[in-house]
Fold this protein.
Amino acid sequence: MQFTWRNVVRSVLVAGAAVAYVAVLAADQESKSASAAKELTQLLETAKLDGIAAADPATPGAFVAALYIPGTQLLVVSAKYAQPTLLVDKINASDYRGLYMDLHSASIPGSKVFIQDQRCDGLSRKSGGDDVADMWDEGDKSTAFDGDWKKAKISEADYTKVYTDADERYSKMLSLLLAQAKKGKPGS
């Protein structure tokens, strides 16, 4: 093949298309939190629970709690609490809803993360056909994972990074909740 600028441009375009295709495939893959969210909601349904909570062993004084609205939403909050022994007592008493409410309303300022998993299927990069987006709230910043990074006034790369980081953290929160749910499961 003879060197021409036309061939160089063609090669660059083909390579760019391949990279874009791989990026689209990666974006369409299931999130890290998807399998954990599905497993957790199944365990909650089986146990006939509407919530679950656990201490975060990686962060002293931090807890994670979830409320489950069957088939509709998984609401998860993670935060530090000023009097952790009170929340440990609530875990021991299986007062998961009470712990959730305490974390949501009286957590240490600046420590709270709140997730609204709209279809109980893990964080989705963009809203489904129903225009219902998963939400990630941390501090004073709220992110709707609706696929519209322009509306959020950030670049696509920044949106992808926020999503990837949130999905990773959400997956870890769900893992803590799963471990707690399995403790109460008969035969575990």
